[in-house]
Amino acid sequence: MSEPTTAAGSGQLRTLAVRITEDLRAQLDIVAQLTGRSTTEEIRLALEHWIEKTKADPVILKKAEAVRAEIERKAQTERAAIAAIFSSENDKPSESKPTPGPSSGPRRGKPASEQS
Asked: Per the structure, how many domains does the chain have?
């Protein structure tokens, strides 16, 4: 489970639990001991390196562009739906409501004989 924590100057950090084999953990511990870093720092550095490598992979870049295009198509559809819902009432001229203007009929509250 992930829990947000804060580190000074680094922004927000989140905890990630990962299950690994005993052999991999032993190797990780040795690498951390040899570099003088914690196992957490070694894992973070390894993940950063892997992500940078993945971002440069042409196959991943092509897939990312396809995902981005799909997100944009969905966003355009949703923007159009919102516009159709909320813009239609304000943009249409009112056909059923009469336009206010001078009244040619008798005024309410006065008898017809008193009106001019």
From this structure: 2
